[in-house]
Design brief:
The complex is a heterotrimer of chains A (314), B (511) and C (337).
Chain A (H helix, E strand, L loop, with lengths): L1 H28 L4 H6 L5 H11 L5 H13 L13 H36 L4 H15 L2 H15 L15 H35 L2 H8 L4 H31 L1 H6 L5 H11 L2 H28 L2 H5 L1
Chain B lengths: L2 H12 L12 E2 L13 E6 L14 H7 L7 E3 L5 E3 L2 E6 L5 E6 L13 H13 L11 E8 L2 E6 L6 H6 L9 H5 L13 E7 L3 E6 L12 E6 L3 H10 L4 E2 L7 H7 L3 E6 L3 E6 L9 H10 L2 H9 L3 E3 L21 H11 L5 E7 L3 H15 L4 E7 L1 H10 L4 E6 L5 H9 L13 H12 L3 H17 L3 E13 L3 E2 L2 E2 L11 E2 L2
Parallel strand pairs in B: 2-11, 2-12, 16-17, 16-18
Antiparallel strand pairs in B: 1-21, 3-4, 5-6, 6-8, 7-8, 9-10, 10-11, 12-19, 13-19, 14-18, 14-19, 15-19, 20-22
Helix pairs in contact in B: 8-10, 9-11, 13-14, 13-15, 14-15
Chain C lengths: L2 H10 L39 H10 L2 H23 L31 H37 L1 H15 L3 H12 L3 H28 L2 H8 L4 H12 L1 H24 L11 H8 L7 H29 L6 H4 L5
Helix pairs in contact in C: 2-12, 3-4, 3-12, 4-5, 4-7, 4-10, 4-12, 5-7, 6-7, 7-9, 7-10, 8-9, 10-11, 10-12, 11-12
The chains are: A mainly alpha (314), B alpha+beta (511), C mainly alpha (337).
InterPro entries (chain B): Peptide/Ni-bd, SBP_5, SBP_5_dom
Organism (chain B): Micromonospora matsumotoense
Keywords (chain B): Signal, Transport
């Protein structure tokens, strides 16, 4: 257990270093002079010289990379080409929006997937099971942005119940936030829900087939008791980890929905940075998301090792 | 690409948001007098994008100027009719040789942080622009020196008479008076300090910029407590927000819905011709576009009404010259009609067959992408195949500078004087003459007009030049877009300006 | 590669191809997802068995969703190849007097903001989607299989280096990485294909490596090694055919996700550039008219959905037949400790 955690930790550090390298090399891939390209229409010699100097692009690659990593370690991801603000604070500013959207989407997904997944596993082959399979096949195949567009069309256009897009901070106006988050969270959550439905179903099925469950049933315990006491408890452990990983992936993975709904989160920040060719912000946002992602996964693995079914079973 | 080209290209864009001084129609919307104009309240304005930064001398984005218009002052400023009038300077005198201008500053003006605004600040601001070659530097081309003999006086000396000096020094907020300490601390990029009616209270990137009333403002106190600018890229959403009352003003309305909106009267919507124009330029440094017949053939092949409809959903006026109707410099000349037969005949005369036009457009201005697709369809009818190349603007400018194009579509925004409409674009070797047009007659006319002091004579010279330019199809002019803005019925005292300056200082909000 | 990974595949007892239960991070994205299978389903598959093809076809024939998916895919293929002849109008026949017309007899899918026939554009755009899907998955397959073969066969530091590299690529959310790559290379058809190819490479590397690890220990492979057959020959003659099954499954599922990714990139304006039609791009261009012209938002999106669904149905069915014990990466994670 301890050795496992240590090894995972070391691996994560190695991968994280690789991630910084990829992010760093992104800038090198820009055809031509990235500062010149970034400035584009805002070109003037002084700004150019200042940016060039600050970005340190004249130094040897290795030196540049080491300095990038060194700064990143202290939380310094450079400054935006566009606004001159520190990238770290720009990215952090976007967290509440993305965080609140991701959490809502996952909650929505759970609300749908949990009953659907458990029911379809328990009544394998039933109508519910078929419905669940159709639903999850639909959810995995449908583009979330198309769902978003259809949602806007229906709920904002035809019915006029919800605003078509925009953002209100949860802390400013909870009701306003809720009405704005509903459509994007549902669009994202639908995909997550269909992934989770399949997962929960197979997880529950697997536990149902375990010896101890059969034993418990053989002992004459009522099916409901067996389900709640044995099956769900054990089936949910892997589900918890998947939910955690889903959440982590949403933080960086909802670009399209954030763009569609004008949601000022990390995803849209990335998109805007692409549009403005603001490479430091692009690098910073990507690095931030990938790091968060790695950490969440590490956490999940460690948690998982602790929650292993064979340990809880006893 | 040489450096001067790059700067020139940057300038071309910097012109976005410049003030025009054509004959501007201002639209008074005060008529709806339901509101008693009770003071206070915060107006939320939805603009189509986010400012890149808030340093008025460095930004070239119109979105920035929409905000900065309410934060900064200039020495003089255009009034509703785009005539230059007093602002920070209350009066000015000109020496008899027209080479020395002396401005007297308003008394007791302070920046929003309380420090006094003196002539030193004016000198600092102008020298910053000139020395650091910032976007508006070209406006100071004839300025020899700017000095401050005393705290209330600014003296500008020139190398040549510049009848346009006032427009240059106050046409838009890109020549605003900034505070030195604000610049040096770097805070100007996000927390600019000006002397205008409002001051920046907070800036949430990706979301909003909040302005609060500047109680130390020298002019009439703004009625609003504040203005919040939110960035709404999608016009449908902006409209929805306006209808829903979340937003009280926007200039980002879905063009296809404008006529219906005007009719419905649920919100106030106004369209006014602007001084902008959009055009097609063919690369005369390349065969066969060096042949005037080929260019004229293209001009005849185009159906401008259709292009206008596709690009702006009718929120524009087709035009065959640069200067819009309504300007005192307008020249009514439209030799081209949609005539594919004529076009084919001209192509035949030029001996051109199976021509493929490499047409460069940019995603930065989606209307060029739309227009290009219509143009492609129209040129196909006369046997020209159009290959549309959609580029990033940075790339686009680079290609333009290198001359790597068969033709391109772009617009010029906010020009003021006819010289600005024609000289740099059509004079042989002109700064923006990327399409390599050269006609000695036009060169002579443009040079002459520059120095003519009699307005009538000058106008005639420009008309002769314009006629030649249009006949040569140097630029194939397409249309002048409208300024389209909408606001809630609760808003009173707002005026649409043809220079697209957005001023909220006199606006009130009924509650 | 870590001992944890090896043990996991051994635990799974699936020579045919446990996906690499690497400890590296991965979201259970759609790409990882395969439908759950009953635990007591099939015995482990030996993919190279004779009659696999026939067995596959037979099984698929009795799986209605798979039949439907196949029919749709065939239809798509026809449309992809012959779209421009099937289309009732030219894709760039602009007619501003006919702009934003709702569906009618003349224009079954309506017209767009330039008066072009939406049906024709949707049909012709099928080619772009298929092209991007095939090329990008082709890239991912070629690179990923090479990396996986080398890593799995040679092991040691090469394995470690290559697979850590794949871990790094896997550490980014799929679309984020694709967007970043397109951002630096500039938007367009080719860069979109490259970006999507890169993004899906690690999955193939992992699947291949895990399968190679299993095959490497088989008697016939050991025998080949012991009689001194060259590595290249062994890989080509013995290993590749034996790992084909999981790769086929992964390929068909990846096609679905690659097409989704292309649509997303195009929807962000980073994919195919106008005037060429692409489904995602049509949605992007139609964004301003969502509430005025529902058909602009509906039909291109529906086309994406149907295509992706068809690939998923066929992919799922293939997996059930060819490689029923193939663990998805996310599920394999559970056997790791």
């Amino acid at each position: 257990m301890g050795r496992f955690v240590l090894r995972r930790l070391l691996q994560s550090v190695v991968v994280l270093l690789g991630v910084t390298l990829v992010v760093f090399l992104l800038l090198q891939l820009v055809p031509g002079d990235p500062v010149r390209v970034a400035l584009g229409t805002r070109f003037d010699q002084q700004t150019y010289d200042a940016l060039r100097e600050r970005s340190g692009l004249d130094r040897p690659l290795v030196v540049q990379y080491l300095s990038y990593v060194g700064h990143a370690l202290t939380g310094d991801l450079g400054v935006s080409f566009r606004s001159g603000q520190p990238v770290t604070s720009i990215v952090l500013e976007r967290l509440p929006a993305t965080g609140s959207l991701s959490v809502t989407a996952v909650l929505f997904a759970l609300l749908v997937a949990f009953p659907l997944g458990v029911l379809s596993a328990m009544r394998s082959g039933s109508f519910v099971d078929h419905a669940a399979r159709v639903f999850s096949q639909f959810g995995v195949s449908v583009p979330d942005f198309w769902m978003g567009i259809m949602g806007i069309l229906l709920f904002a256009g035809v019915l006029g119940w919800l605003p078509p897009s925009g953002y209100v901070a949860l802390t400013d106006d909870p009701a306003g936030w809720a009405s704005h988050v509903a459509l994007p969270a549902a669009a994202v959550g639908l995909v997550t829900a269909s992934i989770l439905t399949r997962f929960i179903r197979s997880s529950v099925l697997e536990v149902l087939a375990e010896d101890y469950v059969r034993t418990a049933e053989a002992k004459g315990l009522r099916r409901r008791v067996v389900i709640v006491r044995h099956v769900l408890r054990n089936a949910l452990i892997p589900v918890v980890t998947v939910v955690a990983v889903q959440l982590a992936s949403l933080v960086g993975g909802v670009i399209v929905i954030e763009v569609l709904f004008a949601w000022p989160g990390v995803g849209r920040l990335t998109y805007d940075a692409v549009q403005a060719r603001d490479y430091p912000v692009l690098q910073g946002a990507v690095l931030f998301v990938a790091t968060l992602f790695l950490l969440m996964n590490l956490l999940v693995d460690v948690l998982y090792a602790r929650l292993d079914p064979r340990i809880t079973l006893r | 690409m040489t450096r001067s080209r790059i700067v020139a290209a940057a300038l071309a864009v910097a012109l976005t948001g410049l003030a025009g001084c054509g004959a501007g129609d201002s639209v008074d919307v005060d008529g709806d007098a339901t509101a008693g104009g009770s003071a206070g309240g915060t107006l939320t304005a939805a603009i189509g994008g986010e400012p890149d930064q808030l340093d008025p001398h460095r930004t070239s984005a119109y979105y920035s100027f929409e905000v900065l218009e309410n934060v900064y002052d200039t020495l003089v400023e255009p009034d509703a009719d785009l005539k230059m009038g007093p602002a920070l300077a209350t009066r000015w005198t000109t020496s008899s040789d027209q080479l020395t201008w002396t401005f007297t500053l308003r008394e007791g003006v302070t920046f929003s942080d309380g420090s006094p605004l003196t002539s030193e600040d004016v000198v600092y601001s102008y020298q910053r622009i000139i020395r650091e070659k910032l976007n508006a530097a070209y406006k100071f081309a004839t300025v020899k020196s700017v000095t401050a003999p005393d705290p209330a006086t600014v003296v500008v000396t020139l190398t040549a008479p510049t009848p346009n000096l006032l427009a240059n020094l106050g046409g838009f907020k890109g020549v605003a008076i900034v505070e030195k300490s604000n610049v040096e601390s770097g805070a100007i990029k996000t927390r600019p300090v000006g002397s205008g009616p409002f001051t920046v209270a907070s800036y949430t990137s990706g979301d909003t910029i909040k302005l609060t009333r500047n109680d130390a403002y020298w002019g009439q106190k703004p009625k609003l407590d504040g203005v919040t600018f939110t960035f709404v890229k999608d016009p449908t959403v902006a409209l929805q927000n306006l209808r829903g009352g979340e937003v009280q003003w926007t200039d980002n309305l879905p063009p296809q819905q404008v006529p219906a909106l005007k009719e419905a009267g649920e919100v106030a919507v106004t369209t006014t011709p602007s001084t902008d124009y959009w055009y097609l330029a063919l690369n005369e440094g390349r065969e066969p576009y060096d042949d005037v017949n080929v260019r004229r053939a293209v001009a005849f092949a185009l159906d401008r009404e259709a292009i206008t409809k596709a690009a702006k959903f009718g929120q524009a006026t087709a035009n065959q010259t640069a200067i819009p109707q309504g300007s005192s410099w307008y020249y009514d000349y439209s030799p081209y009609r949609h005539d594919p037969d004529q076009a084919r005949q001209l192509l035949g005369q030029a001996g051109v067959k199976g021509l493929t036009l490499d047409l460069m457009v940019t995603s930065e201005y989606p209307e060029t992408v739309s227009a290009a697709q219509v143009i492609a369809a129209q040129l196909k009818e006369v046997g020209i195949t159009v290959k549309i190349r959609t580029l990033d603007f940075a790339q686009w400018l680079d290609e333009q500078g290198k001359g790597n194009f068969g033709g391109f579509l772009l617009g010029w925004l906010g020009n003021i004087d006819p010289d600005e409409f024609y000289y740099a674009q059509h004079r042989t070797g002109g700064t923006f003459n990327f399409h390599k047009y050269s006609n000695p007659t036009v060169d002579t006319l443009l040079d002459q007009a520059r120095t003519q002091t009699d307005e009538g004579v000058r106008k005639q010279t420009y008309e002769r030049a314009a006629k030649q330019i249009v006949d040569d199809a140097s630029y194939i002019y397409l249309y002048n877009p409208d300024v389209v803005q909408g606001w809630s019925k609760k808003v009173t005292g707002y005026q649409v300006r043809t220079d697209r300056a957005i001023r909220f200082r006199d606006v009130a909000l009924a509650r | 590669m870590s001992a944890a990974g090896d043990r996991a595949s051994a635990d799974a007892g699936t020579p045919g191809g446990a996906a690499d239960p690497s400890t590296a991070p991965h979201p259970p994205t759609r790409a990882d997802l395969t439908s759950p299978r009953p635990v007591d389903d099939h015995p482990p598959t030996r993919a190279a068995e004779a009659g696999t093809l026939r067995r596959t076809l037979t099984a698929l024939r009795h799986d209605p969703p798979a039949v439907a998916g196949t029919v749709v895919l065939l239809a798509l293929l026809v449309v992809g190849l012959a779209g421009q002849w099937l289309a009732p109008a030219g894709i760039n026949d602009v007619d501003v007097d006919q702009m934003l017309r709702p569906p009618s007899g003349a224009h079954p899918f309506g017209t767009d903001e330039l008066g072009r026939d939406v049906l024709s554009r949707v049909l012709v755009a099928a080619r772009v989607s298929l092209q991007v899907g095939l090329v990008s998955v082709g890239i991912a397959l070629a690179v990923g299989v090479t990396v996986g073969l080398l890593a799995g066969w040679y092991g040691g530091w090469a394995d470690n280096l290559l697979m850590r590299g794949m871990d790094v690529l896997f550490a980014f959310p799929v679309l984020l990485l694709a967007v970043a790559i397109v951002a630096v290379l500039g938007p367009g058809l080719v860069t979109a294909m490259v970006a999507i190819g890169v993004v899906y490479t690690p999955i193939f590397a992992r699947v291949t490596r895990a399968s190679v690890l299993a095959v490497r220990e088989q008697v016939f492979v050991r025998a080949a090694v012991s009689i001194g057959t060259s590595d290249l020959r062994i890989l080509r003659r013995h290993v590749l055919p034996n790992i084909a099954a999981p790769l086929i499954v992964q390929t068909s599922l990846s096609l679905a996700f690659a097409i989704l990714s292309e649509a997303a990139l195009s929807f962000l304006g980073l994919g195919v550039q106008p005037p060429a039609p692409a489904w995602g791009r049509m949605l992007y261009d139609g964004r301003g008219f969502i509430t005025d012209a529902w058909w602009l938002g509906f039909f291109p999106g529906a086309a994406i959905f149907v295509t992706v669904l068809a690939f998923n149905l066929v992919g799922d069915a293939l997996r059930d037949v060819l490689d029923p014990r193939q663990l998805t990466v996310s599920e394999a994670r559970r056997s790791t400790r």
